[in-house]
């Protein structure tokens, strides 16, 4: 079985793990009501998606 000959330095390990960070969510604004919503998600406020009504309004 293969075993590493030398211990990996902290620098090398941290460089490899730098891509594993949690990135903040990118928000876009709804074209109908202006609420900040994640992209590719139906607006919870007005029920529109890409300018089209997807959920019937309660009013």
Structure in words:
Keywords: Ribonucleoprotein, Ribosomal protein. InterPro entries: Ribosomal_bL32 (IPR002677), Ribosomal_bL32_bact (IPR044957), Ribosomal_zn-bd (IPR011332). One of its GO terms (biological process) is translation. The protein has one helix spanning 10-17; strands spanning 27-29, 36-38, 48-49, 52-53. With 59 residues, the chain is of the alpha+beta class. The chain has a domain at 28-59. The chain has a two-stranded antiparallel sheet. Strands 3-4 form a two-stranded antiparallel sheet. β3 and β4 form a beta hairpin. The chain is rod-shaped and about 65 Å long. It starts with 9 loop residues before the first helix and ends in a 6-residue tail after the last strand.
Mean pLDDT, rounded to whole units? 89
Q: Number of helical segments?
A: 1
Apparent shape: rod-shaped
* Rg for CA atoms: 23 Å
Question: What string, H for helix and E for strand, traces the elements in order?
Answer: HEEEE
**Number of beta strands:** 4
Could you estimate the helical fraction of the residues in percent? Answer: 10-25%
Alpha carbon gap, first and last residue: 68 Å
Strands ordered across the widest β-sheet: 1-2
Our estimate of the beta-strand percent is 15-25%
**Low-confidence blocks of residues:** none
> Helix/strand-derived class?
alpha+beta
- Give the biggest beta sheet: 2 strands, antiparallel
